[in-house]
Amino acid sequence: MASTKYAEDFVNFVNSSPSPFHAVHSAKNLLEKAGFEHIEEQQSWSSVIKPGRKYILTRNASSIVAFAVGKKWRPGSPIGMIGAHTDSCCLRVKPISKKQSDGFLQVGVETYGGGLWHTWFDRDLSIAGRAIIRTKTGAFQQRLVQIKKPILRIPTLAVHLDRQESFSFNKESQLFPIAGLAAAELNRRSEDRDYEKLEKEQSDSNQNYEPLRVPSERHHPYLVELIAKEAEVSASEVVDFEMVLYDTQKACIGGLNDELIFSARLDNLEMSYCSAIGLIESLGTSLGNDSTVRLIALFDHEEIGSTSAQGAASTLLPAVIKRLCTLETSAEENASAYEETLSKSFLVSADMAHSVHPNYPGKHESDHRPEMNKGTVLKINANVRYATNSPGIVLIQEMARRAKKSSTSPSKAETGVPLQLFVGRNDTSCGSTIGPMLSAALGVRTLDLGNPQLSMHSIRETGGAHDVEHSIRLFDSFFSNFGEVGQSIQGD
Fold first, then answer.
1. Which fold is adopted by the domain 5-88+264-488?
2. Span of the secretion signal (predicted)?
């Protein structure tokens, strides 16, 4: 039986990453353990970036770029890139979330992305994200927060009160989670000395001018206290926060033969994880003879269009490439180095794909029906909703042919991982990815791919346990072999 080690490691990664901030933190930890050094966008790179070394930078703490510089790389040489995204469809806590109705405490939430919102009902929910706190010195710092116990729930209406043939609801008025009972909160306040202290601190702060109401007035005070406890500060030190709701049920390996993954946020933490591990494992192939840069970029805000300072449509990736192309070059040499690099480079846009659904087989085109654990899916669309074309398919196929096999693989072949093809039906809509926007902005050769899954955008998704290893080995091969193979496949 094939090993599930990579799938188990991914499950641990996704369980520690309930928000984009946590996903970046988790990826950064993996990369730092592999010897990547942290650099800042604000600093000069001229004396920092050295051939043969590895670097990480973050933007907004929700997007991350990591790259390893081959010792033979020079400005104008190619970059092998994989792009993915750290965000997933979710519910976000509103800036003013404090609500109360018919004896219940409720929390105001806002939909983020195109989620299957009916799947969020009757789940054990909590919150995670980042809090901005004021230190004793008056400075402001960011702290990651994950409240691990269930504190919220969106209850469905009993069938006896509304016998709907299909479940429908109003996202503004009927998607608010309950957080407890008003009576219980009043009893807690009367017995809680910390709450008396918070009220006093809040009263003292009201003596000074505050442009906005303090968090303990805009949100339920006990919610702010829980956030403060996780941030290891007092509630009065919490200035603001960005919190998302998440399902406290952990991701796990499932299926009769441990062949499935049941998890939140497969889209797109699976591709984020696989690209990071693929980059790390490629370092077993020495950078000493490499004339490329091996780079991953994990962006925030893909689910809402990527048009933000930390999204794929931002300056983040172009700025990194431009700065690499100005290292150790004269003004004359630098004149076209950026454009030369882009023309020689290749981008893999890695975002999850749709597995054929056994209960809805007619939703897939008859000859393009990806199956779980049968390999990573190359995504194609004639209207360029995906950026894949024939030169890209040939290149990735060669990378898959050269990929190292698992030691537990039943195949006698020493190398190779499987690939699949996907084209959507003409009578169904097609999603898109960061691939087309980045290929248009950079003019770089691009291909879209991803592992097959079911229930995309649900609170609980399903994927193949062995596809995690398939894509990691594919990405390892891409980084290890792009310098040799990339320039032999041209579309001009």
1. Aminopeptidase (3.40.630)
2. none
Closest to 93 in 3D by CA, of 19, 165, 160: 19
Say if CB 175 and CB 212 are below 8 A apart: no
CA–CA distance, 293 with 277 (Å, rounded to integer): 16
pLDDT tens by residue, the chain, 492 residues: 467 999 999 999 999 999 999 999 999 999 999 999 999 999 999 889 999 999 999 999 999 999 999 999 999 999 999 999 999 999 999 999 999 999 999 999 999 999 999 999 999 999 999 999 999 888 999 999 999 999 999 999 999 998 888 889 999 999 999 999 999 888 888 777 666 666 666 666 556 778 999 999 999 999 999 999 999 999 999 999 999 999 999 999 999 999 999 999 999 999 999 999 999 999 987 899 999 999 999 999 999 999 999 999 999 999 999 999 988 755 556 779 999 999 999 999 999 999 999 999 999 999 999 999 999 999 999 999 999 999 999 999 999 999 987 655 555 556 899 999 999 999 998 889 999 999 999 999 999 999 999 999 999 999 999 999 999 999 999 999 999 998 888 777
Domain ranges of the chain: 5-88+264-488, 90-247
Between 3.90.1150.10, 3.40.50.720, 2.30.250.10, 3.90.1740.10, what CATH number should domain 90-247 receive?
A: 2.30.250.10
Q: How far apart are CA 251 and CA 263, in angstroms?
A: 4
CB 288 within 8 A of CB 112: no
Nearest to 85 by CA among 244, 266, 242: 266
Question: CA 371 to CA 357: how far, in whole Å?
Answer: 9
Give the count of beta carbons closer than 10 Å to the beta carbon of residue 291. Answer: 18
- pTM of the shown model: 0.95
- β 54-59/37-38 pair status: parallel
Structure tokens that stand for 122 in this block:
């009757």
Give the Cα-Cα-Cα angle 343, 281, 340 (nearest 5 degrees).
10
φ, ψ dihedrals at 317, nearest 5°: -70, -45
Do the Cβ atoms of 307 and 297 come closer than 8 Å? no
Cα separation, 202 vs 322, whole angstroms: 48
